[in-house]
User: What shape does this take?
Amino acid sequence: MASACPLCGGDGGTLVWRGKELRVIRAEEAGFPAFYRVVWNAHVAEFSDLSAPERLLCMEAVTAVEQVLRTALQPDKINLAALGNMVPHLHWHVIARFAWDSHFPSPVWAAPQRPGDPARLAQVAARLPQVEQALRSQLDRLV
Assistant: This one.
């Protein structure tokens, strides 16, 4: 199964940071420029497959991504999800959400509530290089 797994065969998005156990990528999700994933490097399907220290490291990474997004982008909400129904490889979604985004307050996977706002999306996207530098700095402190 791991050989067919898209998260085993590649980074799964734009690589922001890689450590021995996990990596952080920016997902290419139209309309959501600040959509990140914390991906466990080894192929495991469930959070409970990790040891207690590994679970702690994983959640510390999720927390670090959330904190950087909150500080740098000041979103209205951060969405966290670990569904894995389509890709059964442990990964956490960390998504900065804004009241003006096309789907808010619904999940990003729901039907849009309104058209996207290209100007606001571009403003967020323009800040991502600084966001990602802050992410790398925070994540380097975990290991």
Observations:
- The domain at 2-135 is CATH 3.30.428.10 (HIT family, subunit A).
- The chain has one domain: 2-135.
- The first helix runs from residue 6 to 9.
- The mean pLDDT is 95.
